Amino acid sequence: MNKEIETSEEESEKLEVFESASTSKESEDDELDELIKNLNELQLNKRKINRFVPVHKRESKLSKKKMDKVSKFTQNILKSGTQYIDFCIKQSKKYIYNISSSKLAHINLNMNFIIKTDDNQFCLLCNNQFSSESYFIMEHIFGKEHIENMQKQNSSVMKTENASNISDDNLKLIAIPYILKTTNESFHCHACKNDITEHKVFDHSLNQYHILKCRDLKNNASDTLKKIIALLKDTWYYTQFFACTVCEVEYQMEIDFVEHLKNKKHCIEVEKCIAKGDILEFHICFACVTCIYGDISKYYDHCEDIFHKRYLTKGDYKISKMMPPLIGLLNEIEDKKQKILNESDSIILESPKERSLLKAVEKVVESVYPTATAYKFGSRCSYTALSNSDVDIFLDCDDMYNKNFNAESCKKYLSSVKECFENHKDIWYIEEVLYDTRVPIIKLRHYPTDFKCDISFSNGLAHRKSKLVRYYNDAYGICRELILYLKKWVTFSQLSGSEGISTFTVSWLVIFYLQFIGVFPSVYELIKSQTRSMIIDGWECGYKEYFDAKPNKFSFVEHLVGLFTFYAQFDYQKYVICPYLGSIIEKEKFATGELPSELTAILSERKKEAVSLFRFDSPMCMQDPTDLSENSTKALRKRQLRCFREYCSSSVEIIISEHQDKCL
């Protein structure tokens, strides 16, 4: 009866959490409705807005100019930003990744029934063998069959008239359920791996050999438990999909799931379920990388689903082992680094050919745009290119270098330039024309130089970003070496690409690490010490070009170990990487608007508003060092992030192991 009352109180508390999440936002949502309705015309309120006032509470008057169409995320962040932090980041009552004390107790108790057999695990209660992976153990001990068998299990402590003579330590060992009944008169000891008759069970349990074997199994169980606890602490990294079985809806984004959880209709359905006696909790299915909200029976149904079993068998949720090329890159590092450096240096020697390419581009379009200027940007501009690097070109057709980005204008320039290149098919081959990307581009091959190039028509922002990376590389040679090495490492890790870790991201992962340990100044410091301001699309792009890195005695390999260690241990759930300030910022600060004053100190009111809508819900958050409203890593998925973290950690182990072997 007491247990029922306790459960009822627990469910009432959960309902209260959802209801408070809903009602606390009611009045705010009314104020926001008009803003959301007019988001396509949103501009900053001309009045100065106190940067410490949360975004969702600010008064907003629409200005006359129009902004680009705002994403669904922006609408949700205005309504649910702080709720997202409460549900997905802060470990509070609302936190969806909490593991309840009852679940932890269940795990602790059931580890006594799981024993290691060779490379697998064996459940004494269910007589089942399964993989030693933590996911499989969790799957089993929370499975319907196991829980039913556990409920049938009698007390494992054997009470006899001589029990008073047993020491506490021995009593604990006897209580471990390694001796199980097999028939009416027979028992089997799984610790010693032999059969025992009923009248000898007590004597066997006090045998010294049996006690030692039990201790071994207990130690193995303890090690396995530690791995499970470590997995549970990383639950956020494993959850990519979200399902509410109460309302029978599914989501692919956390913030959409949060919006649902605080919805009135959902709260009403939750109340109905509790009235029926359902015990509602968040359950994590590691095989399906899904967070499920609902009654435990729904979780059991999910585990019996054919698709779930397929995912569990295929093991897509697991991180692939490091491939041989990646492992090879981590051996003889100095030699590998030098080869990569030589490869990149050979690209630098192609600068005359690149200049010839830029002139050829200008020549093609001069009949339509006589003052057009072609600028090289990207890895070839920052001296971080490798042999497979294309030439990225910004074509300034009509004095657009310092102008605001306009997608429609870009498409117009792209259409006219495409016609120009079509008239020179003997020299140029058009590989692809992309109108519907964020920045429209045309992909070409130039026959005389055999260069592939991507031409865009936005503004000079990308060119200035590339120059900034070059300034850091010039200030500290090891920076360029680390970027080139990490670029190759990311490629061999199969994490590169438009939806992975880009070359731009690689550069700033390295620069930020060097900022964080004090070798480099922040971007903000370079702006403050500049001699000439340069505003492009509202962002400051004037940087001090020549500066000194702080002297240090670290070698390339020592920096590499430091870099991998830093990102293996970084808390991506909680923090945003901010190269602009050279420090980390809590995601919560973006939700509440309580950002560091330096971050927005030199920004216009319009850009301050843009920064307040920064996309902080992605697995990895790196703020663009120039366009502070952009999250450079928003495309990275949690599985890729887990892979990145694990490979960083493994890389440190391999490097240290090789170093120790050389010292022997």
Structural notes for this entry:
By secondary structure, the chain is of the alpha+beta class. Helices cover 49% and strands 13% of the residues. The strands form 6 sheets. It has a 5-stranded mixed β-sheet with strand order 11-12-15-14-13, with helices on both faces. Strands 8-7-10-9 form a 4-stranded mixed β-sheet, sandwiched between helices. A hairpin with a 4-residue loop joins strand 9 and strand 10. Residues 1-10, 34-69 and 154-176 have low confidence and may be disordered.
Q: Any idea what the shape is?
A: elongated
What does the average pLDDT come to? 84
By secondary-structure content and strand pairing, the structural class works out as alpha+beta
Number of DSSP-assigned strands:
19
Question: What profile does the largest beta sheet have?
Answer: 5 strands, mixed
Uncertain residue segments: 1-10, 34-69, 154-176
Radius of gyration equals 30 Å
Q: Helical residue percent?
A: 40-55%
* Strand arrangement, major sheet: 11-12-15-14-13
Please give the alpha-carbon distance between the first and last residues. Answer: 66 Å
Discrete helix count: 28
Strand residues, percent:
5-15%
